[in-house]
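Suppose a colleague, Dr. K., hands you the sequence of a protein chain of 125 amino acids and asks what its three-dimensional shape might be. Before reaching for any lab equipment, you can write down a predicted structure in token form. Begin with the sequence itself:
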Amino acid sequence: RIWKSKTMFNYWYNDQSSSSFIGALDYIVRPNDIKIDYINVNDDECLYVNKPITLDESRVIHHKLLEYVKKCAKDENKDKVIIDVHGNLRIYNKFFKDEGFQVTGRKASDNPFWQEVEFTLPKDT
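The predicted structure, expressed as tokens, is then:
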């Protein structure tokens, strides 16, 4: 989880309100892949540095979170990173398509309106 923090007299202060929340990532290492359970960049309300995060900044933060998960997948010797997205693919097109994720056509296990998209890690040569 990423929060805007302040320091005062060498003590950290985190108010952890919606205006200081920047982003979050939760994932599960499974036997054959890594499944992203939750990824979010707060580009709606976040007022870090007294202004909202721009779409470009949001994409950079999202890219870095996905880069981290891809590195974890490689370190764990997993071939794929999987995430569920809504069937309308709006979020997929905004954040995952350009990152190399592919639509699988498989329904999400817990919601028929969502589907799995996956990133296959390149094989080392």
